[in-house]
Amino acid sequence: MADTITLMPYDEALERFEPVLGLEVHVELGTASKMFCGCPTTFGAPPNTQVCPVCLGLPGSLPVANQKAIESTIRIGLALNCSIASWCRFARKNYFYPDMPKNYQISQYDEPLCSDGYLDVEVEGRTFRIGIERVHLEEDTGKSTHVGGSGRIHGADYSVVDYNRAGIPLVEIVTKPIPDADRLAPEVARAYVAELRELMRALGVSDVRMEQGSLRCDVNVSLKPRGAAEWGTRTETKNLNSLRSVERAVRGEIERQAAILASGGRVIQETRHFHEDTGQTTPGRSKEQAEDYRYFPEPDLLPIAPDPEWVARLKAELPELPSVRRKRLQQEWGCSDLDMAAMRNADAIDLVEATVAAGAPPADARKWWMGELARRANEQGVALADLPITPAQVARVTELVASGALNDKLARQVLEGVLAGEGEPDEVVEKRGLRVVSDEGELLALIDKVIAENAEVAEKVRGGKIAAVGALVGGVMKASRGKADAARARQLILERLGVQG
């Protein structure tokens, strides 16, 4: 059922109300096997081929905890400045849904593995410290697909369930309320999820591919009249799978709730579905409270009691954190804040760094990834990292340009050939005959031909209109199919015409 209320413009909503945010991010861990059984976790396998009695919840089956998943969760907690529990245990979270094969989820309730941390994010020159309430470990659910209608359960012709995802280790990272984001609430939410995603990547605990569901975000939003002490009723927008969706969902909920409150209505505590096409949300279900899940300790699993020495070793082995790394790379590469922000937004920092490591100057590596390759990725609707080209290949193209073997126009054609599967850059150069015309005699012959065909332009240049030489250079480039060195061609043309450049 869609809402019929007219939204309040964002600026007006923020003049009258203050937003309070809460973010719950679910991260599928990149372990080889599931949380409580030995089934594989390969994404995209045929439906219901990676299942067993344990993850299907068949009678008599018993779970065994995945040590690697516990280790990864502790590493996440340490990177988020959390306290690590000396003793905790799993609990059963009881609720019925078709993608829950046991009709309960093994999770953690009042005894999370990690708690009371923080993550700093920067938005428009301000640093926001986002408090982390808890980081706990659980198992993921299966995946329901509703066929027909809008793709939601209401109005669908039928539904099917794939249990391959059921039982995959899932970390839930829950923030404390964020009351101070104010007008920047949408941007703060986006920045937090982006920073968290980079952190998970740096730790190597997940591929955090939001489009595949390995990182999903639930956004809680409430409003209170400006100056009021009591927070408003919150809603929870579920399963946002892109940074843009996170930002749009926060903005849309602020506009929706403000309109309700301004008209004297009441915000209902419920889950909401986000719609990519409109940027708005529609009702899901009324939000259960903790007691509705009837939590109780999981009787089939032993408590977790991490050895303090093990935790200390994991802390000592943490990699360089993303914020520290970005500052270091920015200094090493000599790029501006805007350049670094653009690379970060395009998920290009890793690619540029690898290209520099392969021998390319930082400016050249950034130029090709953020220029020609970003354009091609946008055209194809894929991530930069999914383009069929490696940093080493991009570095080789920059080397060929620096040596004079290619100019930028020819380099773009080489990249095109590599992307098309025609081989390594040098192979593409040879197959397509793309080397710059470096033979002086061949270049002079082209110049003489162009001068002869453009006598009037040549006379203008001889008469002192040096700017007109550009037309002759263009003619040489056209005659050479872009293979001539334009700067050298200009120099030789002026010499041929007896003009000082």
UniProtKB/TrEMBL annotation:
Molecular-function annotations in GO: asparaginyl-tRNA synthase (glutamine-hydrolyzing) activity; ATP binding; glutaminyl-tRNA synthase (glutamine-hydrolyzing) activity; transferase activity
Gene3D superfamilies xrefs: 1.10.10.410
Alphabetic keyword roster: ATP-binding, Ligase, Nucleotide-binding, Protein biosynthesis, Transferase
Catalytic activity, reaction form: L-glutamyl-tRNA(Gln) + L-glutamine + ATP + H2O = L-glutaminyl-tRNA(Gln) + L-glutamate + ADP + phosphate + H(+); L-aspartyl-tRNA(Asn) + L-glutamine + ATP + H2O = L-asparaginyl-tRNA(Asn) + L-glutamate + ADP + phosphate + 2 H(+)
Domain of life from the UniProt record: Bacteria
UniProt keyword Disulfide bond, yes or no: no
InterPro entries: Asn/Gln-tRNA_amidoTrfase_suB/E, Asn/Gln-tRNA_Trfase_suB/E_cat, Asn/Gln_amidotransferase, Asn/Gln_tRNA_amidoTrase-B-like, GatB, GatB_Yqey_C_2, Gln-tRNA_amidoTrfase_suB_CS, Gln_synth/guanido_kin_cat_dom
Enzyme class at the top of the EC tree: ligase
Record-annotated Asn/Gln amidotransferase domain positions: 350-497
Gene Ontology annotations of biological process type: glutaminyl-tRNAGln biosynthesis via transamidation; translation
The keyword Nucleotide-binding is assigned to this record: yes
EC number: 6.3.5.-
PANTHER family assigned to the protein according to its UniProt record, in alphabetical order: GLUTAMYL-TRNA GLN AMIDOTRANSFERASE SUBUNIT B MITOCHONDRIAL AND PROKARYOTIC PET112-RELATED (PTHR11659), GLUTAMYL-TRNA(GLN) AMIDOTRANSFERASE SUBUNIT B, MITOCHONDRIAL (PTHR11659:SF0)
Subunit field text: Heterotrimer of A, B and C subunits.
Function: Allows the formation of correctly charged Asn-tRNA(Asn) or Gln-tRNA(Gln) through the transamidation of misacylated Asp-tRNA(Asn) or Glu-tRNA(Gln) in organisms which lack either or both of asparaginyl-tRNA or glutaminyl-tRNA synthetases. The reaction takes place in the presence of glutamine and ATP through an activated phospho-Asp-tRNA(Asn) or phospho-Glu-tRNA(Gln).
NCBIfam families (alphabetical): gatB (TIGR00133), PRK05477.1-2 (NF004012), PRK05477.1-3 (NF004013), PRK05477.1-4 (NF004014)
Family statement drawn from the similarity comment of this UniProt entry: Belongs to the GatB/GatE family. GatB subfamily.
Protein name: Aspartyl/glutamyl-tRNA(Asn/Gln) amidotransferase subunit B
Organism: Thermobispora bispora (strain ATCC 19993 / DSM 43833 / CBS 139.67 / JCM 10125 / KCTC 9307 / NBRC 14880 / R51)
Gene this protein is translated from: gatB
